[in-house]
Design goal:
Blueprint lengths: L3 H12 L6 E3 L3 E4 L5 E6 L4 E7 L8 E7 L4 E4 L11 E7 L13 H6 L18 E2 L5 H7 L16 E8 L7 E5 L7 H8 L6 E13 L5 E8 L7 H13 L8 E5 L4 H5 L2 H6 L4 E3 H4 L5 E5 L1 E10 L9 E5 L11 E4 L8 H9 L3 E4 L6 H4 L5 E7 L2 E6 L2 H11 L17 E2 L8 H4 L1 H9 L12 E4 L1 H10 L2 H9 L2 H5 L1 H17 L4 H12 L7 E7 L16 E3 L7 H9 L4 H9 L9 E7 L6 E6 L10 E8 L14 E6 L8 E5 L13 H21 L10 E7 L5 E8 L1 H5 L12 H5 L2 E3 L6 E5 L6 E6 L4 E6 L6 E5 L8 E6 L5 E7 L1
Parallel strand pairs: 12-13, 13-14, 16-17, 17-18, 18-19
Antiparallel strand pairs: 1-7, 2-3, 3-6, 4-5, 4-7, 8-10, 9-10, 9-11, 11-12, 15-19, 16-20, 20-21, 22-23, 23-26, 24-25, 24-26, 27-28, 27-31, 28-29, 29-30, 31-32, 33-34, 34-37, 35-36, 35-38, 38-39
């Protein structure tokens, strides 16, 4: 029987040509000085020719260039690096019956004659040059479409660079449409997309930047680099298709087109390193552009642990100081971090370092430093400060003493009230019942009593700890867990502990539910609308303890109608009590594993969300006053657990609106056009109102009205009907961990608080800076550390005023330097 999949590449190849096209022999194969292919063949004057290329043996052929016959032997090439001869085919076409290689309804010769407004290898429609083009046949047209300026506030790596925006429609289709956007005419991608009447959700966006002083893949100076919006990473297939599509429609390129990826996203290349290595896609990393930066302190702190060289698929322990040659997207608790990969201060890894108060630094080529390479696998002391890093070998006793001092002195037994034996509607659950249903469930139920509009807080049910306890007892799991916890092999063998916990979770998921429990759960499920999906969310009794947040340790599940009884999803939530990350975190904080208990919050699942986000009812990142800090993202790409390429919008909104300028965008979402908000300002106004109510109501319930550092961590979303929903609220973790401190520690590094005082922050004009005694100079830089302004200081000068009205909007670092050039203090300003 004929296998259709085996001939599909051939079918697609034939579809893109007219019936008169035929393959002709290649007479000679060679390469030029740019490592581009030179394919010689006999041509005819009444024919034209298309070159087809196959990236790998598993790929289908696609068109990469086109040429006109002369009646003599001619050469066809393509803009990218040469592949072996067997990966090329040349087809001959009749000029009096031209084909349509891009299947856009126009013949190839018409489009070839009307470049750049058209393109024979691009299904994009014709557009006037004042708006853009379908091709860029030469460097003159690139320059005419490009923009270069110092006002690129939304992507610092484009500042003062010559670039052309691009938009690709339906990149996953057989015939995607590539538009080169006139970047002088259209400041934003969204301007062009709206003008053309395109569907924003179907558009892949980015820029092509010309770096005149950067070494190209062909060995010459001058590189064209394409990036995706805001320098985000994309999967290998998207990168390769974009690379091929741009090259085919910029035929003047000489194997000098590379893929640029910003520092935050270099891990997306590393995670697909084998595919990139086997491709012909040159990579230009941000760290290559800033190659003169050899060290950057991301979080000033000190710590002890075992120094380990980590790969992305390895799991570090809480007492490891990790060295990554690439940047992981997420990281569990560790003892310290060093990377050979340039991070930004807002990377996931650095935010974790700040929260855990562990040292974190970028160190170029760390293994070339013998101090580091000689200590791999050993216990060390590691300290990061602004001027450099320090490390030495440490004894096991020093390490043990360090962590014992960090850990609580006594075992913590979370409250577990088993007198609540029934599943209850949320309206029957009060704030005080968190000891029986968990804080997540009780807090959500409590918010239904606040002065918020109807349906702002979901309705649903709470399943008490009693059910988890009865289920575990019924199946004998507590006895098994006792044996595990007391086993020296489980306690001392890190890898074995991972495997045994995975086995335990599998056993919980596959265990039987007591009959009475199944009946009660079925009754609850029956109260939801027929054919509805129900969100089953973990709600434990070991969250929000002093010094222990527990956020993100456990799993929630959505139960769909086609999955049968809801027992399945409830058991999955129960099993997540024994996630490796949850066990390790409880063990570090001496949480009694046997009294740790799982409740479940059940409510209708929201589908096709328009936006989601997290708000803190203070500003823990930039330390601005009387503001709320918001992270929002488009659609269902969760801020709390984002896709690898996702960067949410950051906004500071004034707690009290006094003027129209009552919010400030720190960073736009990389899933939207620049200057495009995730949520309309009407939602920002509603959030301001809701967050104020939630903050003050919970401050009263927790009896912390007089503590200014108290804040709530609030998750929200906009559902498909356009309604703002509050889905969760819990006290901000850093408040609990420092509740007894006289001056609670904030998320900024210690030097930033003890030295410079910058106000107002944010500012648009005047900035006052005090605390300058014993400093020789102030240096203002952008986030990557590039100097922007240096201010010399006089002896005993304690304060100055400077005007930042000429600075583009963004985040800056103000560094206080000693006479020897040592960075003593650092502060962020907006």
């Amino acid at each position: 029987m004929l296998n259709i999949e085996s001939i599909l590449p051939l079918i697609l190849l034939l579809l893109c040509m007219n019936s008169s096209a035929q393959e002709i022999p290649i007479l000679d194969y060679d390469q030029d000085n740019n490592n581009q292919v030179l394919l010689s063949f006999a041509s005819q004057a009444d024919k034209y020719y298309s070159l087809h290329v196959q990236n790998t043996a598993a790929d289908s052929f696609h068109v990469s260039s086109i040429g006109i016959g002369t009646g003599d032997t001619i050469i066809l090439s393509e803009p990218l690096s040469a592949l072996p001869q067997e990966q090329y085919k040349i087809f001959e076409h009749e000029m009096d019956a031209p084909g349509d290689l891009d299947a856009d309804g126009l013949d190839d010769l018409v489009e070839l004659a009307d470049m750049p407004s058209m393109a024979p290898l691009n299904a994009a429609t014709s557009i006037p040059l004042e708006d853009g083009s379908a091709s860029i046949p030469d460097a003159i047209i690139f320059k005419e479409l490009s923009y270069a300026g110092s006002d690129i506030t939304w992507a610092y790596f484009l500042d003062n660079q010559e670039f052309v925006k691009f938009v690709i429609v339906d990149i996953d289709s057989l015939y995607p449409q590539l538009y080169f956007v006139n970047s002088e005419t259209h400041e934003l991608h969204s301007d062009f997309i709206n003008l053309m009447g395109l569907n924003f959700g179907q558009c892949t966006r980015g820029e092509i930047v010309f770096y005149p002083n950067t070494l190209a893949n062909n060995g010459t100076i001058g590189t064209y680099c394409f990036n995706f919006s805001l320098g985000q990473g994309q999967n290998f297939e998207i990168v390769q298709k974009t690379h091929e599509l741009i090259a085919a429609n910029m035929p003047f390129l000489k194997n000098n087109l590379a893929y640029f990826v910003r520092a935050d996203f270099e891990y997306t290349v590393v995670s697909a390193q084998a595919e990139f290595d086997q491709s012909r896609i040159p990579i230009l990393f941000e760290s290559d552009i800033y190659a003169d930066i050899d060290y950057l302190a991301l979080h000033v702190a000190e710590g002890y642990g075992r120094l380990r060289l980590m790969s992305l698929n390895e799991t570090p322990g809480a007492r490891d100081i990790v060295l990554y040659e690439s940047l992981p997207n997420t990281l569990p608790r560790v003892g310290g971090i060093m990377t050979s990969f340039l991070q930004t201060p807002l990377s996931h890894v650095n935010v974790r370092a700040i929260q855990d108060n562990v040292p974190n630094a970028f160190i170029r080529s760390p293994l070339s430093d013998q101090r580091i390479s000689d200590l791999l696998g050993k216990y060390i002391y590691y300290k990061v400060d602004q001027s450099g890093y320090y490390l030495r070998e440490a004894s096991l006793d020093e390490v043990e003493q360090w962590y014992e001092e960090l850990r609580p002195d006594f075992t913590q037994s979370p409250a577990m009230n088993l007198s609540y034996t029934e599943i209850l509607p949320l309206d029957d659950i009060s704030f005080e019942m968190s000891d029986g249903f968990g804080a997540k469930c009780a807090n959500l139920a409590t918010m239904r009593t606040f002065d918020l509009p109807d349906e702002t807080i979901p309705d649903g049910f709470g399943i008490p700890f009693y059910y988890y306890q009865e289920f575990m007892q019924y199946n004998g799991f507590f006895q098994q867990i006792e044996i595990l916890l007391n086993s020296p092999a489980f306690q001392n063998n890190f890898e074995l502990r991972i495997d045994l916990l995975a086995d335990l979770r599998a056993a919980i998921r596959n265990a039987d539910m007591p009959e009475w429990m199944s009946e009660k759960l079925a009754d609850m499920y029956a109260d939801f609308p027929a054919a509805a999906s129900v969100r089953c969310r973990s709600s434990t009794n070991n969250e929000d303890l002093p010094g222990f947040s527990g956020a993100g340790l456990y799993d929630s599940k959505t139960h769909h109608p086609n999955e049968g009884t809801i027992d399945k999803s409830i058991k999955e939530v129960f099993a997540s009590m024994w996630n490796f990350r949850a066990y390790e975190e409880r063990e570090f904080y001496r949480i009694d594993h046997m009294t740790a208990s799982m409740g479940v919050l059940c409510h209708l699942n929201y589908s096709e969300e328009l936006a989601n986000g997290v708000a803190i009812t203070t500003d823990p990142i930039y330390q601005t006053d009387n503001t709320y800090y918001l992270n929002s993202q488009l659609g269902e790409d969760l801020v709390t657990n984002p896709e690898s390429y996702s960067m949410p919008e950051e906004i500071l909104i004034d707690a009290i609106s006094l003027t129209e300028d009552d919010f400030r965008v720190v960073r736009y979402s990389n899933l939207l056009g620049e200057d495009t908000l995730v949520m309309d300002t009407i939602y920002l106004d509603l959030l301001r109102e809701y967050l104020g109510i939630i903050h003050h109501e919970f401050a009263s319930l927790y009896e912390v009205q007089d503590l200014k550092n108290f804040a709530m961590d609030v998750e929200y979303k906009i559902n498909s009907a356009g309604q703002l929903i509050i889905k969760q609220a819990r006290p901000w973790a850093s408040f609990w961990s420092n509740l007894e401190a006289e001056e609670p520690i904030t998320m900024l590094s210690q030097p930033a608080r003890q030295g410079l005082l910058c106000y107002p922050n944010p500012t648009q004009n005047e900035l006052k800076i005090s605390g300058l005694r014993n400093l020789d100079m102030l240096l203002i830089t952008d986030l990557p550390g590039r100097p922007i302004l240096a201010i010399d200081l006089y002896d005993e000068q304690n304060s100055i005023e400077t005007n930042l009205n000429l600075f583009p909007e963004g985040i800056y670092l103000i560094k206080g330097l000693s006479e020897e050039g040592e960075v003593l203090y650092i502060q962020r300003i907006i």
